[in-house]
């Protein structure tokens, strides 16, 4: 019994130390998330992409990593792109990059892992979005993605299951800006959610620290294990929860010896293939498109994980 009491006490103490080092970052990231949620609308994002179709894959990737869209918001933007008669390449680029990161997630990960890791994660998101778009373009030109849309837009932006009215704003409208009370209420909701996940999963992670020998984690996911990165990338597919939960959990495993590259690989595949991301994708696309997205994320996570471990080994990050 004393073992469990000591374990819980140690875990709580470590969670508190981690929180005291990161609470300013957590509060600022919540503020960024609140502001972007209230002032950035998925319809406007879709409209922007439709106005700048010429930028294609690059534009879709850039918008994906700079907007804080949830799974539903990502789905709405993709529907807008489909109504705007986009090819699959920029749509796949957006599907790959959008779930991975956003400005507030970058700040959150910087607080836990440091800026080199956070920047690497952002760069990886951009690279994978571009790669996914290029792969999508290649297979689309060979006809492999024909009839893969669950909606068939027709000229003018309407389709069998979506209309331009659903996907894009048809006329300028007077938008009521959120007042201070609404901003405060939304901010407190975001802070409450973020702190709940942070404390819960940081605690779980530190409890696991006490139950799982650190050398076991190092043997599986350490920098010297060639299979650590692909194993982490594969485990990220079913085990990722969400950003708020998974970041502190992965941080605890890094403290036990998980390599930075393996951590990066886990977060990439997990974020891109979470239940919300895949469910949203399946509402608009069939399995060949999903296969391109998941394949890009899995292979890309492994390659970038090895690369990041190499950069760490030579002291460049």
Descriptive keywords:
single chain, about 75% helix, mainly alpha, about 0% strand, about 325 residues
Could you give the count of β-strands? 0
**Share of helical residues:** over 70%
- Rg, Å, rounded: 21 Å
SSE arrangement, N to C:
HHHHHHHHHHHHHHH
Largest sheet: none
Q: How many individual helices?
A: 15
Number of domains: 1
Quick structural gist:
With 317 residues, this protein is an all-alpha fold. Helices cover 75% and strands 0% of the residues.
Report what the structure shows:
The chain has one domain (2-313). The longest helix has 38 residues, at 2-39. It has helices at residues 2-39, 42-51, 56-66, 71-83, 88-97, 103-113, 115-141, 164-167, 180-211, 214-221, 228-239, 243-255, 260-272, 275-282, 287-313. With 317 residues, the protein is mostly helical.
């Amino acid at each position: 019994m004393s073992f469990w009491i000591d374990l819980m006490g140690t875990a709580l103490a470590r969670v508190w130390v981690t929180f005291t080092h990161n609470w300013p970052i957590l509060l600022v990231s919540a503020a960024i998330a609140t502001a972007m949620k209230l002032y950035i609308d998925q319809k406007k994002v879709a409209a922007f992409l439709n106005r700048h179709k010429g930028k294609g894959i690059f534009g879709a990737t850039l918008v994906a990593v700079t907007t804080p869209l949830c799974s539903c918001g990502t789905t709405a933007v993709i529907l807008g792109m489909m109504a705007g008669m986009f090819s699959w390449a920029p749509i796949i680029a957006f599907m790959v990059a959008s779930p991975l990161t956003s400005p507030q997630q970058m700040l959150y990960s910087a607080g836990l892992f440091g800026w080199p890791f956070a920047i690497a994660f952002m760069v990886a998101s951009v690279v994978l979005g571009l790669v996914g778009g290029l792969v999508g373009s290649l297979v689309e030109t060979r006809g492999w993605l024909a009839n893969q849309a669950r909606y068939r837009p027709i000229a003018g932006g309407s389709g069998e299951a979506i209309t331009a009215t659903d996907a894009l704003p048809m006329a300028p409208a007077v938008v009521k800006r959120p007042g201070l009370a609404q901003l405060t209420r939304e901010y407190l909701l975001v802070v409450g959610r973020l702190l709940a996940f942070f404390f819960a999963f940081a605690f779980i992670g530190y409890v696991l620290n006490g139950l799982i020998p650190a050398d076991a984690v190092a043997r599986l996911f350490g920098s010297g294990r060639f299979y650590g990165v692909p194993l982490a990338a594969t485990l990220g597919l079913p085990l990722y929860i969400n950003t708020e939960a998974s970041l502190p959990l992965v941080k605890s495993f890094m403290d036990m010896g998980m390599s930075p590259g393996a951590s990066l690989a886990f977060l990439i595949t997990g974020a891109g293939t979470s239940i919300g991301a895949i469910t949203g994708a399946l509402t608009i696309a069939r399995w060949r498109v999903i296969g391109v997205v998941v394949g890009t994320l899995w292979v890309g996570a492994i390659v970038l994980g090895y690369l990041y471990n190499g950069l760490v080994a030579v002291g460049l990050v």
